[in-house]
Request: fold
Amino acid sequence: MAHIKPFKAVYYNIDKVKDFRTVMAPPYDVINEEYQNDLHNRSPFNFTHIDLEKQFPNDDRTDNRYTRSKKTFQDWLKKRVMVEDSEPAVYFYRQEYKVQGQKYNRLGFISLMELHDEGDSKVHPHEKTHANAVDDRFQLTKALNSNLSCIFVCYSDVQKKVEKIFNKHLCATEPLIDVVDDNDIRNKVWRLTDEALIADINKSLEGQNLFIADGHHRYQVACEYRSHRRSRKIKSGGQESYNYVMTYFTNMDSKDLQIFPMHRILKKFPQDLSFLDEFFRIDKIKTKEELLILLAKAGKNEHAFGLYTRDGIKLLRLKNKLLIDREIKEGSSEYKKLDATILKNFVFDRQGIPSDDNIIYTKDLNEVTNMVDTGNADAGFVMNAVKIKQLKDIALNGEKMPPKTTYFYPKVLSGLTVYKMD
Reply:
């Protein structure tokens, strides 16, 4: 089964765009309205002008965010602001960044990934999708007949075969793209056109289970768009452009793959915390820094999370692991043991706390403490990060994690490559 395929990527023309920092953008789903305005104003060629066009009250069937994105994209191609590569390639992509002062270099590559019917697919999602978000991306894909952003997929390469190809053949050469983004992450892209080396990469992925880390909505859209296009064609040969989706692959066995915890901010939460005594050991903590140290230590052998309120900081540790199977009735053992599942079942559900407008998800601990300190929220739950093994086990079970359980860092920058279908 073929997993990957080189393609002629569409990317920014260095002769037309001198400063790539003005045109690149993070994924659309992490951009709020204020940041969207900032990116739009940086350059008329910023990628958000096609990936996240603005919506207006008087939009209609013929003039809306999707039709404007299509017109803008066509205009950029006509004026050669963006150009299509001269030959199919696989695009190696390295991100150089720091976390708590430590340097990391995450290496991956961008190629096409073949789509299959659900029963034949070895691609495993782990998060639920939302219908509105899927519809938005479907309409955009349909209008432009293109993949604007990559799906983020993890594969296993303990022997680092793919990395060795990069180090031997590309690392010392000049990159096609070299840009530092708004998070001070250096993004570099190289082209690989050697068919034999691409075949070696393909062989190293052959037969593997692949795990979606990010881009679940884009993956579902790609599958639905494939079905949409196939329904209009009497016979499909399987090699049509819509049978593939632009994908970023990275090695799940690498130490440079970082998963951040997703904390929970609760706008409304009970002031009386005595109900927590039934299931949790509760320790008072003096500082945020101490909480992070003790939470990480507890997470190695226990199920624990921090609780931040205006009355102080606490570390909550589940009293007995046997409580999990006794109290949580749905899901596999792996699913039940997720800290997010335990928090939902032992705390949120028992207090009737709604999970929609009342909960804000964030990777930023300072956002948790600031919202509580300023009175904009009653409480914040500080989480440990999900382990890659948990993600694999749950995905292979065909299950989906609770919303906003993982945050893979760094995000794959948008605007590096576009897959323009026939």
Summary: The chain has a mean pLDDT of 94. DSSP finds 13 helices and 21 strands in the chain. Residues 263-382 form a domain with the Conserved hypothetical protein from pyrococcus furiosus pfu- 392566-001, domain 2 fold (CATH 3.30.1760). The first helix runs from residue 33 to 42.
